[in-house]
Write a structure and sequence with these properties.
Blueprint (H helix, E strand, L loop, with lengths): L1 H23 L10 H13 L21 H4 L8 E4 L1 H11 L1 H21 L5 E14 L3 E18 L3 H67 L5 H36 L6 E4 L13 H11 L1 H21 L5 E12 L7 E11 L7 H67 L5 H35 L14
Parallel strand pairs: 1-4
Antiparallel strand pairs: 2-3, 3-5, 5-6
């Protein structure tokens, strides 16, 4: 009899192993399209009947055609005024940003998940109550009641490292979530800085466009006076009129860009969109930079959030391998309980207790544990490769940002000199024309070159300040001072 049992058991093991190997065998991969699938898709598509759609061509941009009273009655809220500088814009954005709040909520969740994982090592206590009514058929039918109460305790002593690995993995996830808060704060600071400098650039460019209109309007007045006196030809009046019209068009576009930039900054700061902002200083700052490229790269390799998160991802992948290997290990648990039972409700008359322990060991699980280990190791290699890839891309990013900063700095020097020369050239051209020794084209060209020189100078200042902010972000400099972490 025992030989038969062993034979049956051996056959079951062999069948299980064979089934597992068949599953792990790789099938051939088809690398061509299947015409049958395409044919069925085309057939199904042809069978679909498109419903006729009635297109609405009503001009809904006219207030009378809105069609709903609640929308028609909407009035613009009263606009508020706010004087602001870069520090105020960044601080407001950091205090109001929703993405930062979301990252903080994610951190709270990660902390709770650590406690959840740690609960796997703690004793589990449960209470149960049962009640019933039954009949026994003996010489006389007897109907009886049965009530019982019980408190049971289960304490996992050893899980093969599964619970320990889950706890460590959850702690690494918490650390990564904490880093994500820093990352979002820095991203918000960079976003606010860009929005502020875009607004400042738009203000300065609008001023340039406005001054161009003023200059050309004054020049047109001078040209008309000379034309009326018979000194210049009508061509000068016409060409001056065209230049003034073009300047007015550019002025309209520049003012619209300024208003859009203002609304965008309000949106980044999360204050009412129609808030009228006034800069405390319209001039761009020109802070110096003294660090070397190597120092910038070293800072990024140490503090850049993506790299720190990638480190934690590697550690979590290592713990996943540890958890998978726990499938080969036995588990040990202690159990205990105290019970009561009685024929009368609630059933606390007779009592008893029990204490015990148990060991469970999965000898063969069909290859599931081995597959989980191979999967976890593949994830570990992926995490390590992602870390190295991130280091390379971040080094390139820092190098580019560093070079862009110094390129913009050189452009500031070049364009600043160009503005001074263009201003001088414009003065000479206007004086020569007013004296009758110059031509109209010289004045118009001088004004055009002056505009371009000023635009180039403003753009260079914008690029330099944006470059500094971008480089700071690429280096991993925190936006907010946290007491638990300081940059050394």
């Amino acid at each position: 009899m025992n030989k038969k049992r062993y034979a049956v058991l051996a056959s079951a093991v062999i069948l299980s192993l064979g089934a597992g190997f068949n599953v792990m065998a790789a099938d051939s991969v088809r690398t061509t399209t299947d015409p049958a699938i395409t044919s069925r898709a085309l057939k199904n598509d042809a069978a679909e009947k498109e419903a006729a759609r009635k297109v609405d061509f009503t001009n809904r941009l006219l207030a009378k055609n809105l069609g709903t009273e609640d929308v028609t009655a909407v009035k613009a809220p009263a606009a508020k005024a706010l004087n602001i500088d870069l520090k105020g814009a960044v601080t407001t954005a950091l205090n109001n940003n929703r993405d930062i709040r979301l990252s903080e909520y994610a951190l709270e969740k990660a902390k709770a998940q650590v406690s959840e994982a740690a609960a796997g090592k703690n004793p589990q206590v449960s209470y149960d109550w049962k009640g019933g009514r039954f009949q026994t058929n003996q010489t006389v039918k007897v109907i009886s009641n049965s009530y019982s109460n019980g408190i049971n305790v289960t304490w996992p002593i050893w899980t093969g490292g599964a619970v320990e690995g889950a706890i460590d993995s959850a702690r690494y996830a918490e650390d990564a979530a904490n880093v994500a808060v820093y990352q979002q704060e820095a991203a918000t600071k960079l976003s606010a800085t860009k929005a502020y400098y875009q607004w400042l650039e738009a203000i300065n460019l609008a001023d340039v466009a406005d001054e161009s209109v003023s200059n050309l309007d004054g020049h047109l007045t001078n040209v008309k006076q000379q034309f009326n006196a018979g000194i210049v030809a009508k061509l000068d009046v016409l060409s001056s009129n065209v230049s003034l019209a073009n300047a007015k068009e550019s002025d309209i576009s520049a003012k619209n860009t300024r208003d859009v930039a203002e609304a965008n900054l309000n949106n980044v700061m999360r204050i009412p969109m129609n808030t009228k902002l006034t800069p405390t200083d319209k001039n761009f700052p020109q802070p110096d930079i003294t660090i070397t490229m190597e120092q910038a790269i070293a800072m990024a390799e140490k503090y850049r959030w993506e790299l720190v998160e990638a480190d934690y991802n590697v550690k979590m992948a290592e713990e996943a391998v540890r958890i998978a290997r726990a499938g080969y290990m036995p588990t040990v648990a202690l159990t205990g309980g105290y019970s009561w039972n009685d024929d009368d409700f609630p059933g606390f008359k007779h009592e008893g207790w029990s204490v015990g322990g148990g060991l469970s060991w999965s000898i063969f699980d069909g290859g599931a544990t081995d597959a989980k280990i191979r999967e976890a190791k593949a994830d570990l290699k992926t995490a390590e490769e992602t870390l190295l890839k991130s280091r390379e891309s971040i080094e390139l990013e820092v190098r580019q940002d560093y070079l862009n900063v110094f390129s913009a700095k050189e452009k500031i020097r070049a364009t600043e000199a160009a503005v001074a020369e263009a201003e001088e050239a414009y003065k000479i051209a206007t004086v020569r024309y007013a004296s009758g020794v110059g031509i109209n084209l010289d004045v118009l060209d001088a004004q055009l070159q002056l505009n371009q020189a000023r635009i180039n100078y403003i753009t260079a200042l914008y690029d330099y300040n944006i470059g500094l902010a971008t480089l700071e972000n690429a280096m991993g400099i925190p936006a907010v001072i946290h007491t638990e972490t300081t940059v050394k």
